[in-house]
Amino acid sequence: MKAPALVLVLLTACACGTSTTPAPPARQARITWLDFHGVRLPLSDLDGPRVLDHDRAKGFSHTREGALLAALHIGVRANSQWGPTVFEPTITEQVVGPDAGRLLEQTRTTYEESRQEAGLPQGSPLGKAYVDEEAYRWESYAADAATVDIVSAGPDRRGTTVRATTRIQVVWRDGDWRVVAPLDGDWGNAATELKSLDGYTRFKE
């Protein structure tokens, strides 16, 4: 993820001939990485998430970088893979839009079908994902709404790395970024296979 650009402040001397010392440049964000059940996710000390609790992620800065991190963290957690203790509150509290209810319904159905097929206890996670979040590309950004394409990579059944890009919309609401549910509540409608990272920005280590 790109760190915020340095802010250069130019202070001119006043008419009386005195001068002032330029303000120091803005501090760059420190990025660390979290292993979220096999998915590597970036964390920023400036842009969030500021709250990590019970596999939930909240508290993102009202900035471009905060919007990107919110799209990534909330989008990943709004998935049946982690079980209802994660996807239920994530979708209920952090996903908005006309298809949010449909997304919750479909995620519940997918989870239950996968859980029964794997013979897992009710409420348990479905297992690790083994996915890398590799890169992103902005589609649009404004103060209270943004759209970003996020690239995920992982092995297929033959062990070959495959990539897909998922378009995620976020809006600033009630003091934090929220993800807008995909069309018909289906992430498949927002994802496409990707052959090249040309035009995308890689997340920095």
UniProtKB/TrEMBL annotation:
All residue ranges annotated as the DUF8175 domain in the record: 14-202
Signal peptide range: 1-15
Keywords for this protein: Signal
Pfam hit, one: DUF8175
InterPro entries given in the database record: DUF8175 (IPR058488)
Domain of life: Bacteria
Protein name in the entry: DUF8175 domain-containing protein
Species in which this protein is naturally found: Microbispora hainanensis
